[in-house]
Amino acid sequence: MFELSPDGDTLRTIAREHSPLSVTDADLARAREELEWFVQEGGQVDWSRIPSDKPAIEYAFLDDRGYLWVWPVMPFGREGLALDVFDPTGRYLGRIESPVPIATRPAPVVRGDAMYAVTESELDVPFVVRLRIERPEPGAVELGAAGDGPPPTATDRSSVRAARPASPG
């Protein structure tokens, strides 16, 4: 990823190694199912143009402190359960795992040490969750539940803890 000035100059580049995920037969079957309405309306899909690998990221946003939150493309069934976090200089801090899938739209809002996001119930009913962001050492970012006892300790900057919906209050 890169940030450009209004004049088009590169201000910052952020890179991270990743292993691309292959597009599976199940992915293609889901795509065909989701585009069936389009084909029935007369649309044409050139299935040969679908690449063999998935893109590296699904979505990204900046929080109120300038941290970049990135949804990496995950295997089917794990979408929205992991976020990669970069500090304002572009340094990779680590991956955060969430117990609830976090929707990319509407984008989560991070203010201070709380993330407000949309997830869905087992019946596909959307609702808002609040996750507490724990910063146990300079630069480290973790998500945890409010009222869960003492905050987890981090052993290094890329330490990851499971996230839980924060309790109301």
How would you describe this structure to a colleague?
This protein has 169 residues and is mainly beta. The protein has two domains: 21-54, no CATH class; 57-169, no CATH class. Helix content is 9%, strand content 30%. It is built from two helices and ten strands. It has helices at residues 25-34, 36-40; strands at 2-4, 10-13, 57-62, 68-72, 82-86, 92-97, 109-111, 114-120, 126-134, 142-144. The strands form three sheets. A four-stranded antiparallel sheet has the order 3-4-5-6, with no helix packed on it. The chain has a four-stranded antiparallel sheet with strand order 7-8-9-10, with no helix packed on it. A two-stranded antiparallel sheet has the order 1-2. Strand 3 and strand 4 form a beta hairpin. The longest helix is centred in the N-terminal third of the chain and has 10 residues, at 25-34. The protein is globular.
Compose a concise summary of this entry.
The protein has helices spanning 25-34, 36-40; strands at residues 2-4, 10-13, 57-62, 68-72, 82-86, 92-97, 109-111, 114-120, 126-134, 142-144. The chain has 169 residues and is mainly β. It has two domains: 21-54, no CATH class; 57-169, no CATH class.
Give the low-confidence spans. 145-169
Total number of distinct structural domains: 2
The quaternary structure here is single chain
Q: What is the string of SSEs from the N terminus onward?
A: EEHHEEEEEEEE
Average pLDDT value? 80
User: Class by helix and strand content?
Assistant: mainly beta
Helical content class: under 10%
Overall outline: globular
What is the terminal-to-terminal distance?
36 Å
Strand order of the largest sheet: 3-4-5-6
Largest sheet: 4 strands, antiparallel
Radius of gyration from the alpha-carbon trace, in angstroms: 18 Å
What is the number of helices? 2
Residue fraction in strands? 25-35%
Number of beta-strand segments: 10
